[in-house]
Amino acid sequence: MEKVLIAGGLGFLGANVASKFKEMGYKVDVCSRRTGVDIREYAQTDNFLKELKPDIVINCAAHVGGIAYNTKCPVAIYEDNLIIGFNLLKASVKNKVLKFVNIMPNCTYPGIAEIYQEDMWWNGPMHPTVLTYGM
Protein backbone atom coordinates (compact mmCIF):
# COMPACT_ATOMS: atom_id res chain seq x y z
CA MET A 1 0.00 0.00 0.00
CA GLU A 2 1.42 3.38 -1.00
CA LYS A 3 1.82 5.99 1.72
CA VAL A 4 0.61 9.49 0.86
CA LEU A 5 1.49 12.68 2.69
CA ILE A 6 -0.94 15.56 2.25
CA ALA A 7 0.83 18.79 3.22
CA GLY A 8 -1.83 21.20 4.43
CA GLY A 9 -4.05 18.17 5.00
CA LEU A 10 -6.18 19.86 7.66
CA GLY A 11 -7.26 22.78 5.46
CA PHE A 12 -10.31 22.89 3.22
CA LEU A 13 -8.64 21.47 0.10
CA GLY A 14 -6.18 19.19 1.88
CA ALA A 15 -8.82 17.56 4.09
CA ASN A 16 -10.91 16.72 1.03
CA VAL A 17 -7.91 15.36 -0.87
CA ALA A 18 -6.90 13.27 2.18
CA SER A 19 -10.44 11.91 2.49
CA LYS A 20 -10.52 10.88 -1.17
CA PHE A 21 -7.15 9.09 -0.93
CA LYS A 22 -8.32 7.24 2.19
CA GLU A 23 -11.45 6.13 0.32
CA MET A 24 -9.20 4.76 -2.44
CA GLY A 25 -7.29 2.66 0.10
CA TYR A 26 -4.09 4.67 0.51
CA LYS A 27 -2.31 5.06 3.84
CA VAL A 28 -2.68 8.81 4.40
CA ASP A 29 -0.75 11.12 6.71
CA VAL A 30 -1.22 14.87 6.93
CA CYS A 31 0.97 17.69 8.15
CA SER A 32 0.49 21.38 8.82
CA ARG A 33 1.51 23.92 11.40
CA ARG A 34 -1.43 22.63 13.47
CA THR A 35 0.26 19.20 13.58
CA GLY A 36 3.59 20.78 14.54
CA VAL A 37 5.27 20.81 11.11
CA ASP A 38 6.08 24.24 9.71
CA ILE A 39 6.94 23.54 6.08
CA ARG A 40 8.51 26.99 5.82
CA GLU A 41 11.33 25.53 7.96
CA TYR A 42 13.39 23.24 5.71
CA ALA A 43 15.00 21.21 8.53
CA GLN A 44 11.56 20.37 9.97
CA THR A 45 10.25 19.39 6.56
CA ASP A 46 13.29 17.26 5.75
CA ASN A 47 13.22 15.49 9.13
CA PHE A 48 9.49 14.85 8.88
CA LEU A 49 9.81 13.26 5.43
CA LYS A 50 12.86 11.26 6.53
CA GLU A 51 10.86 9.74 9.42
CA LEU A 52 7.56 9.30 7.55
CA LYS A 53 9.01 7.92 4.28
CA PRO A 54 6.00 8.70 2.07
CA ASP A 55 5.76 7.38 -1.49
CA ILE A 56 3.70 10.36 -2.63
CA VAL A 57 3.67 13.98 -1.42
CA ILE A 58 0.76 16.23 -2.37
CA ASN A 59 1.17 19.91 -1.57
CA CYS A 60 -2.14 21.45 -0.50
CA ALA A 61 -0.42 23.76 1.98
CA ALA A 62 -0.62 27.49 1.42
CA HIS A 63 -0.57 30.87 3.06
CA VAL A 64 -3.97 32.27 2.08
CA GLY A 65 -6.37 35.01 3.08
CA GLY A 66 -9.30 37.02 1.86
CA ILE A 67 -9.21 39.99 -0.52
CA ALA A 68 -8.35 42.54 2.20
CA TYR A 69 -5.58 40.33 3.62
CA ASN A 70 -4.17 39.67 0.14
CA THR A 71 -3.96 43.43 -0.42
CA LYS A 72 -2.41 44.10 2.99
CA CYS A 73 0.21 41.28 3.00
CA PRO A 74 1.17 40.44 -0.60
CA VAL A 75 4.89 39.91 0.02
CA ALA A 76 4.38 37.62 3.02
CA ILE A 77 1.85 35.51 1.09
CA TYR A 78 4.06 35.24 -1.98
CA GLU A 79 7.23 34.51 0.00
CA ASP A 80 5.65 31.87 2.24
CA ASN A 81 4.07 30.04 -0.68
CA LEU A 82 7.37 29.99 -2.59
CA ILE A 83 9.17 28.63 0.48
CA ILE A 84 6.48 26.02 1.16
CA GLY A 85 6.63 24.68 -2.39
CA PHE A 86 10.41 24.78 -2.60
CA ASN A 87 11.00 23.11 0.77
CA LEU A 88 8.54 20.31 0.06
CA LEU A 89 10.02 19.65 -3.37
CA LYS A 90 13.63 19.78 -2.16
CA ALA A 91 12.94 17.49 0.82
CA SER A 92 10.91 15.12 -1.38
CA VAL A 93 13.81 14.75 -3.83
CA LYS A 94 16.34 14.30 -1.01
CA ASN A 95 14.17 11.63 0.63
CA LYS A 96 13.46 9.79 -2.62
CA VAL A 97 9.70 10.40 -2.73
CA LEU A 98 8.37 8.63 -5.82
CA LYS A 99 5.71 11.18 -6.81
CA PHE A 100 5.27 14.87 -6.01
CA VAL A 101 2.11 16.84 -6.82
CA ASN A 102 1.88 20.60 -6.36
CA ILE A 103 -1.74 21.79 -6.42
CA MET A 104 -2.53 25.06 -8.23
CA PRO A 105 -5.52 27.08 -7.04
CA ASN A 106 -8.25 27.99 -9.53
CA CYS A 107 -7.35 31.66 -8.99
CA THR A 108 -4.36 31.08 -11.30
CA TYR A 109 -6.86 31.10 -14.16
CA PRO A 110 -7.78 34.34 -15.93
CA GLY A 111 -9.72 36.69 -13.68
CA ILE A 112 -12.57 36.84 -16.21
CA ALA A 113 -13.03 33.04 -16.32
CA GLU A 114 -16.39 31.68 -15.30
CA ILE A 115 -15.57 28.08 -16.19
CA TYR A 116 -12.11 26.68 -15.45
CA GLN A 117 -10.74 24.55 -18.27
CA GLU A 118 -7.08 23.64 -18.58
CA ASP A 119 -6.78 24.82 -22.18
CA MET A 120 -7.99 28.29 -21.11
CA TRP A 121 -5.31 28.79 -18.45
CA TRP A 122 -3.26 31.30 -20.50
CA ASN A 123 -6.28 33.29 -21.76
CA GLY A 124 -5.69 36.36 -19.62
CA PRO A 125 -4.25 37.68 -16.38
CA MET A 126 -5.28 36.58 -12.90
CA HIS A 127 -7.65 38.81 -11.00
CA PRO A 128 -5.53 41.45 -9.18
CA THR A 129 -7.04 40.58 -5.79
CA VAL A 130 -5.48 37.09 -5.87
CA LEU A 131 -2.29 37.85 -7.74
CA THR A 132 0.24 37.10 -4.98
CA TYR A 133 -1.56 33.92 -3.86
CA GLY A 134 -2.06 32.71 -7.42
CA MET A 135 1.59 33.21 -8.33
CATH architecture: 3-Layer(aba) Sandwich
Q: Alpha-carbon distance between the termini?
A: 34 Å
Strand content: 5-15%
CATH evolutionary superfamily: NAD(P)-binding Rossmann-like Domain
Shape designation = globular
Give the averaged pLDDT, no decimals: 92
SSE pattern, N- to C-terminal: EHEHEHHEH
Number of domains: 1
CATH fold-level label: Rossmann fold
Classify the helix fraction into a percent range: 40-55%
Query: Largest sheet, described in full?
Result: 4 strands, parallel
- Order of strands, widest sheet: 2-1-3-4
What is the count of DSSP helices, taking H or I runs of 4+ residues?
5
3D structure, described in words:
Helix 2 (42-52) packs parallel to helix 4. The protein is α/β, with parallel strands linked by helices. 40% of the residues lie in helices and 13% in strands. The protein is built from 5 helices and 4 strands, in the order E-H-E-H-E-H-H-E-H. The protein has one domain (3-103): NAD(P)-binding Rossmann-like Domain (Rossmann fold). The protein starts with a strand and ends with a helix.
List the keywords.
135 residues, alpha/beta, Rossmann fold, four-stranded parallel β-sheet, 4 strands, 40% helix, globular
What's the arrangement of secondary structure elements?
Blueprint: E1 3-7, H1 12-23, E2 27-31, H2 42-52, E3 56-59, H3 67-72, H4 74-94, E4 99-102, H5 131-134
Parallel strand pairs: 1-2, 1-3, 3-4
